[in-house]
Amino acid sequence: MNRLKLLLQVTRARTLPVMISPVVIGSLLAWEQQGASFQWGLFLVTLLGALSAHLAANVTNDAFDFKEGTDQAAQEMIPEGTTFVTGSQPLLHGELSPENYRTIAIVFFALSLLCGGILTFFRPWALAFGAIGFLLAFFYVAPPLRLAYVGRGIGELDIFLSFGLLPLVGSYYIQAGTVTLTALLAALPIGLYTTAVLYFHHFLHWRADKVVGKITPVVALGEQRARLVGALLLILIAATFFFDALLQVYPWYSVVASLTVISVLFALQRARGDLKDYLKLMAANSYANLQAAILLLIALLIRGFLRI
Predict the structure, then answer these.
(1) Which residues of 177-211 are buried (b: 16+ CB within 10 A; e: fewer)?
(2) Could you check whether the bond before residue 144 is cis, i.e. omega within 30 degrees of 0?
(3) Which of 14, 80, 82, 120 has minimal CB crowding within 10 Å?
(4) Nearest Cα to Cα of residue 108 among 83, 130, 77, 86
(5) What CA–CA distance (Å, rounded) separates 169 from 167?
(6) Contact 157/4 with Cβ under 8 angstroms?
(7) How far apart (Å, rounded) are the C-alpha atoms in residues 26 and 172?
(8) Cα dihedral sign for 57, 59, 60, 61?
């Protein structure tokens, strides 16, 4: 049990809902749009592959942040009460070595590759979706690209693509055998909500990021202007939910999902530099993200069964 607990901590398995949501929504949207029977076998292999890739990306991210000294810098600044260490705790405390992290990442990436290979027998472009997602997730922190360290929004674009657009459109393709404009539009609010998770996460350790040259949006903009951009991001998420409902990408009554950003906006307004407030903001955003996904799933199920 201790080893399992450590593995869950190392892989940050608690973040899996942000990958489950686009895969399930994309698959369900394809079933509802195409009117064909739901391919449970393909869905389960798709979900396993996506989750494996997600866990591998988490481990890779923490390993490279540790190598660059980002988490060590945050650890040293903890007594000041201005930053928070969110990754690589087992590395910082000597519970695991960088080699252990590398092994775990390879195992999960290999499992993801296996799933992609299996899906290719049924959908020729399946492995292409997986390969692009892998490259985006890996080079988010890995040299020579190190997109998160280049920053200035490039890392957020990476997350939007690899944890929003690609898994939703890819899972849609696996079910339907095609990619449509509907799938691309459906991915917009999901991808933006996932991007918001990362965006607000930066507030917890932006001072440490600045020390090691990791130019996140909060470092580039400064805390106050970054808060304003965060509010605009939430408004954009609500607008895309409304836009998708208007175009019938999702059912018209799915517009209620746009209301989930309200609690996050209030949490952002209350967060004034205190780490506890930013942790509450992170929790509010994650909960609202999950709420929106559940509302979309219910809406798609209702419309799908009404069409049967």
Answers:
(1) beebebbeebbbbbbbbbbbbbbbbbbbbbbbbbb
(2) yes
(3) 80
(4) 130
(5) 6
(6) no
(7) 5
(8) positive
Most confident of 94-98, 274-278, 289-293: 289-293
- What is d(CA 209, CA 70) in angstroms, rounded to the nearest whole number? 6
Both tokens of residue 2? 């201790």
Q: Is the pLDDT of residue 179 over 80?
A: yes
Average pLDDT over residues 66-88: 66
Largest CA distance in the chain: 60
Rounded Cα gap, residues 60 and 37, in angstroms: 37
